[in-house]
Predict the 3D structure of the following.
Amino acid sequence: MDAIWPMERAADSQDPLFLRKKYGKQLRLWGGVDKRELTRDKQAIENHLRTFIPLVEQGGFIPTIDHTVPPDISFENFAYYMKRKMDLLSGKF
């Protein structure tokens, strides 16, 4: 096994920062975006995405929401998350 998907943040052991520290870059990570943070405000989304900067810089990590987007995330928040995630992935964060 060389990748984990999905990484459900509501599960205690599925923090991508923890997994990268424990297993190194050889383990590819896919997921890890906490959908609960996306129900909050723009600052919460910014703060959450900012935690992924080291993982994105190291490579081998694709930040995504696990499974599907729940209905309690507003379209405005989802659009903001997608814009800022693209900024993160393109080095403009």
Notes: The radius of gyration is 13 Å.
